[in-house]
Design goal:
97 residues; alpha+beta; Conserved Hypothetical Protein Mth637, Chain: A; six-stranded mixed β-sheet
Length: 97
Amino acid sequence: MTWLVADELGVTLRLHIQPGAKKTEVAGLHGEALKIRLAAPPVDGKANACLIAFLADRLAVARSAVSLISGDTSRAKRVHVSGVEPASVKNAFLIPD
């Protein structure tokens, strides 16, 4: 599964982001990335802030555990989440093995 890579500290997620959606939600897989729709617009970092808050809430970690690795101004993003296991991430997003 290329959208989810585990390391000794947590997991790295490969995401495809759709800002400006009606609601913030996981939309399933998009190629080799997990697609997430965000209700926030892609201006002034609002979509990135919404993404970090959504991931932290969904994975039950502090916002400080979620860090944007790459894709600050792109739809294609890589995010690292500390302190979570791959199985709990898949369960949180209802993605089968």
